[in-house]
Protein 1
Amino acid sequence: MSLSHALLTSLLEKSSSGYDLARRFDKSIGYFWHATHQQIYRELGRMEEALWIASVTAPDAGKTRKRIYSVLPLGRAELGRWVGEASPVMDLRDELTVRLRADAVIGPLGLGVELERHILLHRDSLQRYREIEQRDFPPDRPQTRRLRINHLILQRGIAYEEHSILWAQQMLAVLDEEG
């Protein structure tokens, strides 16, 4: 996936300035596709050159260069083309897992502290995801197809964090074993 496709999706949800887009991105797609604000601005420039998006000066720009970006028909077509492609299965690269393999070969390397840190980080993410779920998907709120899709994406994140905590706790127990 390229950043441009994530940005097209976000801009189709709501036309935005670069700054507002980057902030929204951090709070939505950014949970599973990371990009810096600088990368986002660079990509917006490329997308505008490709005629996937257009920008106009924001009404509240004043003396700034604030622009509002929106998706053009070529951008919508590109997103449709990309969505139709086969997706690769997620490629897992996890440094901690390699360190644990080293521990299995060499012997105890004191990775318990690092596992405990990972557990805390996953708990923080899990709490944040659950807060988002309570705020955005209360049980009494009727859910459109779009909301149900977004809820299931969030539930995938929740399941990932729950599993990561459980796995790290199990690994911690094994590392604490003697011999």
Note: The chain has seven helices and three strands.
Protein 2
Amino acid sequence: MRKIDPVVIKETTYVAIWTIILSVIMQAVFLIIQKWDYTVLLGNILSGVVAVLNFFLLGLTVQFSVGKDEKDIKNYAKLSQMLRLLLIAVVLCVGVLLDCFNTWTVIIPVIFPRIALLFRPLFWRNKQ
């Protein structure tokens, strides 16, 4: 097994921190509108963990693709994307179908990594 690149760990940590921050904000919104219950928390945890896991697996895909020829990279990337999307789809379906998860808090956190990446240029410093 290859060692996980520190950049993958660093970027995943960044996304995880933003996911936690945005999750806390979402929990606060549910508290403010007086719709909070345990299903809100469970849905948020389920989807937030899967969103960060998806980003981590994407980073591993990029890391393991380095050094392979172009055809292998394309096939590996397509397989990785398909499996990661399948994982997200299964989790979203389970989260929506089971009553112990709030539907909105299962769906919304999936986009938290994208929001985190939108804010990345504000905090990224080019250290050359």
Note: DSSP finds five helices and no strands in the chain.
Protein 3
Amino acid sequence: MDKNIKYVLLYDYYGSLLTDKQQQYFEDYYFNNLSLSEISENNEISRNAVHKQLKEANEKLLYYEENLKLLSKAKKIRKILKETQDKELMDKIENLI
């Protein structure tokens, strides 16, 4: 899996556990496709500070997944769901995850 895609998926599960600044920088970088320089200019901080916050955010996301395994469990559940024929059950479980 592409590293960026993995971080975005992890953000879906654990993003609210990041600081407000980390969330803002993460969204600007991964969702709004802003460069580190653009983010630093918009927030009037150094490019290095943005890089540090993004790195810390990514490390936190990986840490949360290592301990809680929500993304991993959701993938396993989806795999099991593909094997079932009960469409109603599939839809209910898919909405939960």
Note: Residues 47-68 form the longest helix (22 residues).
